[in-house]
Design brief:
The protein contains nine helices and 14 strands. It is α/β, with parallel strands linked by helices. The chain has a seven-stranded parallel beta sheet with strand order 1-14-13-12-2-3-4, with helices on both faces. Strands 6-5-7-8-11 form a five-stranded parallel beta sheet, with helices on one face. It is globular, with a radius of gyration of 19 Å.
């Protein structure tokens, strides 16, 4: 499907008439990190009332449970989604399996790049935190504090680890994030820096397959044509959904708000949505 064939819809009610399983992004679709978008709380609840399976799929480096607490605090109705799959949750389970198989040694020193002191990405894992790249044995980039620090801060922090080729995992591949002071660079950009400094990075999250496999499995492994992936990022949500064989809908809010014609972006990334919406609302 080309960009010119994308069908523009007024709301997700039209999608509910066509699909039974919804894989929904949260940041930029349901809320901006500070408050829900107008109509989003009602639209999410309406999907559940319509009998749809709703799985939230997020490039959040935090595990599922703290993400769900945030949604409730923002005013979303308990029970208005069935499952929550975050890249942080997928990564945590990867690390747990590595530990069980003896591939990750207990006491491994981990340099954790997170936000607001969050440690949920490694809770319950036999890792020891370090704040220095010089003695890190593992680097985990879970979030960005780009509203507090510039890129040079992260270059200085990560340079010694990258020089020693320390394994690095990024559990939020997004390169742009929404903050209270506007769009800023996200964890994915920090991961790019690590690579430019000479290290290698394993990325977990959209658009990579593991997070979609987890979300579709929790959603009952539906026929791919009976599910729809809804997000605000062409690079992550649309490209990732299409690679997973799932139809896609681009919500032109979040990082694409007021962006105008997106044809050139679709062509550049080779990812065209099946549908577009101005906002995540019912009608």
């Amino acid at each position: 499907m080309s960009a010119r064939q994308a069908v523009h819809l007024d709301g997700i009610a039209a999608l509910a008439e066509r699909y039974d399983v919804f894989l929904l992004d949260q940041f930029g679709v349901l809320h901006d990190g500070q408050q829900p978008y107008p109509g989003a709380v009602e639209a999410l609840s309406a999907l559940k009332r319509a009998g749809k399976t709703v799985t939230l799929i997020s490039n959040s480096g935090k595990r599922a449970e703290p993400n769900e607490r945030r949604l409730l605090k923002l005013g979303f109705e308990a029970g208005s989604w069935d499952h929550f799959v975050s890249s942080g949750e997928v990564a945590w389970r990867v690390f747990r399996n590595m530990t069980n198989l003896g591939e990750l040694r207990a006491g491994t020193r981990c340099l954790l790049i997170s936000r607001d002191g969050d440690r949920s990405a490694i809770e319950g894992l036999p890792l020891v935190l370090t704040e220095r790249g010089e003695n890190a044995e593992l680097v985990l980039i879970a979030a960005s504090e780009s509203d507090r620090y510039d890129l040079d801060h992260y270059r200085g922090l990560l340079g010694p680890a990258a020089a020693r080729k320390i394994p690095c995992f990024c559990t939020n591949p997004d390169r742009i994030m929404l903050t209270a002071i506007g769009p800023r660079f996200a964890a994915g950009e920090i991961a790019d820096i690590y690579e430019r400094l000479g290290g290698s990075v394993t990325r977990i999250g959209k658009p990579y397959p593991a997070i979609y496999e987890a979300a579709l499995a929790l959603s009952g492994n539906p026929a791919r044509g009976n599910a729809i992936c809804v997000g605000d990022s062409v690079e992550h949500d649309i490209a990732g959904g299409r690679a997973a064989g799932v139809p896609t809908a681009l919500v032109k809010s979040g990082i694409l708000a007021d962006s105008g014609d997106l044809t050139a972006l679709f062509e550049e990334l080779g990812a065209w949505p099946d549908f577009t919406l101005d906002a995540f609302r019912w009608r």
